[in-house]
TrEMBL record:
It comes from Cohnella nanjingensis. One of its GO terms (molecular function) is DNA binding. Pfam families: Pribosyltran, PuR_N. Residues 109-269 form the Phosphoribosyltransferase domain. SUPFAM superfamilies: PRTase-like (SSF53271), Winged helix' DNA-binding domain (SSF46785). Residues 5-74 form the Bacterial purine repressor N-terminal domain. It comes from the Bacteria. The gene is purR. Belongs to the purine/pyrimidine phosphoribosyltransferase family. PurR subfamily. GO terms for biological process: negative regulation of DNA-templated transcription; negative regulation of purine nucleobase metabolic process. This is Pur operon repressor. Homodimer. Keywords: DNA-binding, Transcription, Transcription regulation.
Length: 273
């Protein structure tokens, strides 16, 4: 890359960092890329760090030593996240979203890229301090959430299937009990999709009793993998703790009241807040 003026270099460095979250970048790499002295690069990074933190974009961590460098950690301030979640809760409270069984229609929200980016950034903030190798979700509505989160954590997405696909090759399948319907169902994951000993973040769009997520946890055991965390977009608050199959999770929104007769819905911020 040709040598840039400092103003242009700052812009380019900022874009470079934003595109590579949770990636360690050495000062030498920056110095070679911009044909500048490490001292100048350090000064530029100090400016970017201040802007990132003042504007709530994230944190710029510096690692000292020969193998050190900088790592950009995307973050979302909790007060800003709460304002966005409050807007989402109001959208979820629209009466025409109510489906039989007390479920909410959320497909239109899950299809909005801007909204999913905001939600993904919240999940990435909630689990920023954990070591995560990949994100797991079950098809199909959890996929946009998983990919939005993976964008900020910079890790791959693993998709659990409800039906075995020939294109997946050999798979590991398990039976699990749906927490809400008490029916036995099947989920499967391709053997090549997940390495053993992986640290996995599970992301799901809606949790009632937690049967589907518990099924994914059991599936991870077959791969000798570990659960690094569980993130839920919306949880049902009408399930007793005794009925809930999962207790260690982070939710962004909580469905607290559903009246099928009056079609009244109440959604509040989840336990993350």
């Amino acid at each position: 890359m040709k040598k840039l003026k400092r103003s242009a270099r700052l812009v380019e460095m900022t874009q470079y960092l934003l595109a590579r979250p949770h990636t360690l970048i050495s000062l030498t790499a920056f110095a070679d890329r911009y044909q500048s002295a490490k001292s100048s690069i350090s000064e530029d990074l100090a400016i970017i760090k201040e802007v990132f933190e003042d504007d709530g974009i994230g944190e710029l961590h510096t690692l000292a030593g020969a193998a050190g460098g900088v790592r950009f950690i995307p973050k979302c301030r909790k007060d800003e996240a709460l304002v966005k979640i409050a807007d989402i809760c109001r959208m979820l409270e629209q009466p025409d979203r109510l489906l039989p069984g007390g479920y909410l229609y959320m497909t239109d929200l899950l299809g909005q890229p801007g909204l999913m980016q905001e939600v993904g950034r919240m999940f990435a903030t909630a689990f920023a301090d954990r070591e995560i190798d990949c994100i797991m979700t079950v098809e199909t509505k959890g996929i946009p959430l998983a990919h939005a989160t993976s964008q900020y954590l910079n890790v791959p997405v693993v998709i659990v299937r409800r039906d075995h696909k020939v294109t997946e090759g050999s798979v590991v399948s398990i039976n699990y009990v749906s927490g809400s319907t008490k029916r036995i169902q099947t989920m499967s994951l391709a053997r090549r999709a997940l390495k053993e000993q992986s640290r996995v973040l599970i992301i799901d769009d809606f949790m009632k009793a937690g049967g589907t997520i518990q099924g994914m946890v059991d599936l991870l055991h077959e791969f000798r993998a570990y659960v690094a965390g569980v993130g839920v977009f919306v949880e049902s608050g009408e399930i007793d703790n005794e009925e809930r199959l999962l207790h260690d999770y982070t939710s962004l929104a909580r469905l607290t009241e559903v009246d099928l007769k009056t079609r009244h819905i109440t959604v509040q911020p989840g336990n993350y807040f």
